[in-house]
Amino acid sequence: xxxxxxxxTHVYMPGTPFEARALNDVSLSIRDGEFIGIIGHTGSGKSxxxxxxxxxxxxxxxxxxVNGVDLGLKETDLxxxxxxxxxxFQYPEYQLFEETVEKDVAFGPRNLGLSEDEIKARxxxxxxxxxxxxxxxxxxxxxxxxxxxxxxxIAGVLAMQPSMLILxxxxxxxxxAGRREMLELIKGxxxxxxTVVMVSHSMDDVGRYCDRLYVLNxxxxxxxxxPAEVFIHEEQLHEIGLDVxxxxxxxxxxxxxxxxxxxxxxxxxxxxxxxLRNLRKGSDATC
Amino acid sequence: MLKxxxxxxxxxxxxxxxxxxxxxxxxxTIALIAIVFVAQGFSxxxxxAGFVVACAASTGIHLKFLVRGLKPLMFIILFTxxxxxxxxxxxxxLISIWIIRITSNGLRMAxxxxxxxxxxxxxxxxxxxxxSPIALTDGLETLFRPLQVIGxxxxxxxxxxxxxxxxxxxxxxxxxxxxxxxxxxxxxxxTGGLIARAKAMVPLLxxxxxxxxxxxxxxxxxxxxxxxxxxxxxxxxKQLKFQGIDGLAALVIAALLAAVILLNRLNLF
Lengths: 287, 269
Ligand SMILES: Nc1ncnc2c1ncn2[C@@H]1O[C@H](COP(=O)(O)OP(=O)(O)O)[C@@H](O)[C@H]1O
Ligand SMILES: [Mg+2]
Known about the structure:
- The complex is a heterodimer of chains A (287) and B (269).
- Chain A is an alpha/beta fold.
- Chain A folds into two domains: 3-242, Rossmann fold (3-Layer(aba) Sandwich), CATH 3.40.50; 245-287, no CATH class.
- Chain A has helices spanning 46-51, 78-84, 101-111, 116-129, 146-158, 176-191, 203-209, 227-231, 234-239, 246-256, 268-286, and strands spanning 3-12, 20-30, 35-40, 63-66, 69-70, 85-88, 164-168, 195-200, 212-217, 220-225.
- In chain A, the strands form two sheets. Chain A has a six-stranded mixed beta sheet.
- The termini of chain A are far apart.
- Chain B has 269 residues and is mainly alpha-helical.
- The longest helix of chain B has 31 residues, at 154-184.
- The radius of gyration of chain B is 24 Å and the shape is flat.
- The structure holds adenosine-5'-diphosphate and magnesium ion (MG).
C-alpha cells in the first residue's frame, strides 16, 4: 500500500485560545497507480492532511506509512520519502526563487545530489511534461505569466521523478481554459504511471479525473469511494458546502421525474447516452 | 481567521483589564514601570509582584504565558545577577574563595536587580498579553497626537505600525509555507555550517520578499482606491473613550504608588 494513514489527528496551537482541530481521526489508503481526489470545503483540513503525507508535519495520535515505512519514526529518511512523494503546494508559483527557469527546476534534483548531466536531462524532461517550450528555460521565472509560473513550479517537483504526486488545488485561480489544460497535464503525468492525489473543491474536476474520492468535512472523512458512490449523497454534500457535478444533478432530477436513468451517473457522456436512450424509447412508443 | 489577529502574545479575552482603554493601559504600564524604580526594598517588590500576578490571574491568562516572556531575557537577568553578586562590596563576607568574595551586600544587590528586571518584564507582558496590537497602536496614536503640533507624524507612524503588525502573522504563515514547499523539494534548512545555512535561506527569502512587495503594492492600490490620503481630516469608526473602569485603574495605580512609598519609609526589608 503506497500511502496508508491511520487515525491521524492534528491540532494547531494546542493549549492556546487559538487551538484548532484541523484533522480528527483520519484514515485513508491509496493504492499504486490510483488517481485520488480529496475534496472539502475551505478549512476542512485538506492542506493539513497532505503535508503529513511526505513527513513535513507529523502528529500524534496517528500513523502515516509510505510504501510500508512509518514516517513518524526517528530513523526514517525523510529526504528519501520526499523524493518518492512529490508535493505541489497551493499557488506553487509563489515559491520560485532562481534567476532562470532551468535553475529553479534543477533545485530539487540538485538537492538529491545527482550529476549535472542527469540534472540537465531531468529538467528538460520535466519542462516537456508540463508543456513548456524549451526556450523558456533561460528566462527568469518572474517574467512568465501566472499559468506558466505554475507549470514551472510543478516541473520543479516532477524533476525529482516522484512515484507519487500530490497537488493542493492545482487549478485554483486559473481561467477555464487554463484549468482544463492544468488538469490534462496532471492526467498526462498520471498516465505515465505516477500515483496522483489531487486536492480540490470542484466536484466537476474530481468527478472527471479521479478513480476514488475522499470527502473531508471539519477534519473528518465524511464519505469515500468512487465518484458515483460519493455523488449519491447529493443533499448531504450540499449541506457541507459542496456540490455534485452538473451532469449528476441533471441525471438525478430526470430519474426522480420518472425517466429510466440508472443511479450513479455523473460523466457527461454517460448521462447524454442515457438521455438519448430515453428519447429514442419515447419516439419508438409514439410512432 | 483567528490566527491572523495573534501577534506573538495577544490573548483575547473579556476581563476587566482587557476592557480598559488602551491609553489607560499604556499609561498605567509606564506608571507601573516607574513604581518599580521607586521601590527601594523587597517588601515593595513583593507587593508589586503580588499585584502583577493578581492582574494576570484576573485576565484568565495562564501564568505560564506570563513567565514565558522572561525566557528571552533570562540571559540578561542572570548576567546582572552574577555581576552584582561578585562585584558589590560591603557588608559581611559570606563566601570567600581565592579572589572571589561574595558579600551580603552583593547578594542583596544581585537579588534586588534581578527582581527589578523580572518585574519590569512582567509588567510590560501584562500590557501586550491583554491588548490587541491594533488597540495598542490606536492608543499610541492618540497619546502622541499632541506632538503633531511640533511636526511629529503620529498618524503616519501609527498607520505604519498597524500595517506592519497586521502583516507579521501573514508573512510568518507564508514563510512557513515556502519553507515546507522547498523542503518538499529536498531543501535542507537545518544542517551544515554557517555559510551553508545562510545559502539555504535564499530559496526562502527570495519568494518571501517578492511576496512582501507584491502585498505592499496591492495594499497601496487598495488604500488609494479607497481615497486614503493620510491622517488629515480623518475620523475613526471606533472612538476611544475613557470609562469608569479607567478611572478605577488610575486610582489603583495611585494607591499602589502610595503603598510602595509607604513601604520604602517603613524600611521593612
Ligand atoms: N498554521 C495554522 N495555524 C493555526 N491554524 C491553522 C493553520 N493552518 C490551518 N489552520 C486551521 O486548520 C483548519 C484546516 O485548515 P486547512 O488544512 O488549511 O484546510 P483546507 O486546506 O481544507 O482549506 C482550518 O480551520 C484552519 O483555520
Ligand atoms: Mg488548503
